[in-house]
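quick one: zinc ion bound model?
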Amino acid sequence: MNPATAMPEFDLVLRNAQAVTASDTFFCDIGVRAGRIVQLGFGLGPGAREVDAAGRAVTPGGVDAHCHLDQPMEPPVRMADDFESGTKSAACGGTTTVIPFAAQAKGQSLRDAVHDYHARSEGKACIDYSFHLIVSDPTPQVLKEELPALIREGYTSFKLYMTYDDLKLNDSQMLDLFDIAREHGAMAMVHAENSDCIEWLTKRLEGSGRIAPRYHAHARPMLVEREATHRAIALSELVDVPILIVHVSGKEAVEQIRWGRGLGLKVFAETCPQYLFLTAEDLGIDDSYHGARCVCSPPPRDKANQEVIWDALADGLFTVFSSDHAPFRLDAPEGKRPGGKEVPFRHIPNGIPGIETRMALLWSEGVLAGRITPQKFVELTATNPAKAYGLHPRKGTIAVGADADLVIWDEREFILTNKQLHHAVDYTPYEGMLLSAWPGMTICRGEIVWDGSHFTGRAGYGRFLPRAGPSLLPKKRG
Ligand code: DUC
Ligand code: ZN
Ligand code: ZN
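yep, here:
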């Protein structure tokens, strides 16, 4: 039968794929119907639409489980990306699901924060999305009613902060929240930096006039992350609950996680591109304000710490590789120059963009440079984030029944510039990097949303995903 004239059996057939999953690589055609993968095999029947992968690697669409989109900020500061520009940018970089944060302000009900965040995303997302919660005010109402109810409704993960004045929790509050995560089967994510140490160091630096962006890294040395990581693990041990330490930046925090794992504790960990590709020098080697573009927390460390992070990605210490996209324009009064001024490092909005570059940086410099296997890439960027946050097996894999979220990889050398990116930020920290790969196509639930040169999706296509509990660990009977 001539496939060109026969009745289509599929909405889409992706032919000659070198499919990569977290465990295998296999050659196949991928048949898609109603947004799902319905057949994997050779010589599939015709599709209404056909794409020839021509033997190129095809991975699951990325699940970016840590990014910030349109998160409310103290005026005049505003995030550059809303749900439309942020998810468009994600799609063009090979990500098909994002999990940003519905953040509770102190005094606000958690439920209100969730309503507000739905209003911000409604009709705007170009790819599928869900929300983590950020709990900054664990009142009895939040602990007893709101949080358990929201977990039951599918918001099965929440982040808690050990620093930032408007977000930080004390140890007792952390224990309360860990206890809820244990009782209700949610994943607790921890931002681990010691707030008092940061404040003490910041005041000393300010007292001697050291306020340029580069001193942000001096105020948050590895020690403050090491101490908080250790404490978070100890608190989770007390409650007997798995936790996930986010944005781990270097050796001393990695050592704490290895220590916890060595005790048999269920400590999961995430790292991000900035800890592989940036160093503290990117915050400036002099007092120039240009370094504000790389101010994020924890700050990037040094080359030796980058190697530790690479090794820990390869050997399984890390569970998840996320962007921590926190987009602020560099040259703007609502961004890194609040009110139009160069401000002391304490007041520079924390965060860097990276939602579009996450996948290509790791495929190019991880897989193609021989540091990690293609399977490890899939595990870190798609399968494990989907498992950690209750989206697997619908998301994060190539399997019959899974959503047809796929990336075809083009391997070619090019110089990365901000001009080619689709976020609403006026810079990328990775400007001028030589990369060897970029997604040649991104498919989200069977629809092509990036064709290798253009965004072909639309705002409002993305669906909100209520989530199950984490599935990284075996379940006990009964
Ligand atoms: N640090 C965070 O904790 N969140 C957003 C960005 C950042 O730098
Ligand atoms: Zn954080
Ligand atoms: Zn973050």
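Residues 68, 191, 296-297, 324, 326, 350-351 surround dihydropyrimidine-2,4(1H,3H)-dione (ligand 1) (CB under 6 Å).
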